[in-house]
Design goal:
- It is a single chain.
- This protein is mostly helical.
- The chain has a single domain, classed as Orthogonal Bundle (MetI-like fold).
- It contains 13 helices and two strands.
- It has a two-stranded antiparallel sheet with strand order 1-2.
- A hairpin with a 5-residue loop joins strand 1 and strand 2.
- Helix 3 runs antiparallel to helix 9, helix 5 crosses helix 7 and helix 7 crosses helix 13.
- It is globular and about 75 Å long.
- The model has no long low-confidence stretch (mean pLDDT 87).
- It is a multi-pass membrane protein.
- InterPro entries: MetI-like (IPR000515), MetI-like_sf (IPR035906).
- It holds the Pfam family BPD_transp_1.
Length: 288
């Protein structure tokens, strides 16, 4: 074998363990889900193998699934906007901090050390009828009886923002950290105010990081089911909850597979649009 051929094969040899793991743990199960989506759930509860479009017809034409999907995308959009509004100032503060930057980053990473489920359920002790907020309101005399603050859409959005805000901050921080601060100083020396320098120089250069954080927040919030399950009410289910209900509760794997692929297609289309205009490099920086 020639040296050139060996050099061409070397990257694939090095990638083979990772590619094998991805293939076995991601693509093979995905193929099973695709096959299951065309099976049929019979009246006896058994799955009938075949090539039927009944599940896809129900998933695509039933207004119930369409409305839940639109509601899920709306909640994900609101969550993403809230994370951007709250996360950008925090990321800017960390990136421009002259001291204690390591400590600030450590504090930012602390939520990742706690289970997502525990962090979500903690809101029950905070906002519940006998939680900390109601205890404070009662003792201050602001209310005469406990206020019901749980099991509604705003609480679901609050839980999602709590979960996803660090992802937004990290992505924006990576983008801001790569911007030379002397660019703002140069703009100010040419007559710009600090706000004008930020608006005309820093903000445009940091938009890729903001977009990467927005993509992560949107995809993760649209695909979650724990937060609406714990903090939401009967009418606050998101699309992933329908998949969970179909597969785990009803044991209807064919319909659940079709619903999961439907959500995967919508979110995958968003990722492709992002990759077309901005590329995945900035997203990988934020994840790293």
């Amino acid at each position: 074998m020639s040296v050139e051929a060996r050099e061409r094969r070397q990257p694939w040899i090095l990638l083979s363990p990772a590619l094998t793991a991805v293939g076995l743990l991601l693509f093979v199960p995905l193929m099973f889900i695709v096959v299951y989506s065309f099976w049929l759930r019979t009246a006896t509860g058994a799955d009938q193998a075949g090539f039927y479009f009944d599940n896809w017809n129900e998933a695509l034409t039933d207004p119930f699934y369409r409305d839940i999907l639109l509601s899920t995308l709306r909640i994900a959009a609101i969550t993403t906007i809230a994370c951007a509004v709250m996360g950008y100032p925090a990321a800017y503060f960390i990136a421009r901090a002259r001291s204690n930057k390591a400590l600030l980053l450590l504090l930012l990473m602390l939520p990742f050390w706690i289970s997502y489920i525990i962090r979500t359920m903690s809101w029950i002790n905070i906002l519940g009828v006998s939680g900390a907020v109601n205890w404070l309101l009662l003792n201050l005399g602001i209310v005469d009886e406990p206020v019901q603050m749980l099991y509604n859409e705003p609480t679901v959005i609050l839980g999602l923002v709590h979960f996803l805000l660090p992802f937004m901050v990290l992505n924006v921080y990576v983008a801001l950290e790569g911007i030379d601060i002397s660019l703002e100083d140069a703009a100010c020396s040419l007559g710009s105010t600090r706000w004008q320098a930020f608006r005309e120089v820093t903000l445009p250069l940091s938009l890729p990081g903001l977009a990467a954080g927005g993509l992560l927040c949107f995809v993760l919030s649209a695909g979650t089911y724990i937060t609406p399950l714990v903090l939401g009410g009967p009418t606050d289910a998101m699309f992933a909850n329908l998949v969970f209900e179909a597969i785990i509760t009803q044991l209807n794997w064919p319909l659940g597979s079709a619903l999961s692929l439907m959500l995967l297609a919508v979110l995958g289309a968003l990722v492709l649009i992002y990759n077309h205009y901005l590329g995945m490099a900035q997203l990988m920086k934020g994840l790293g």
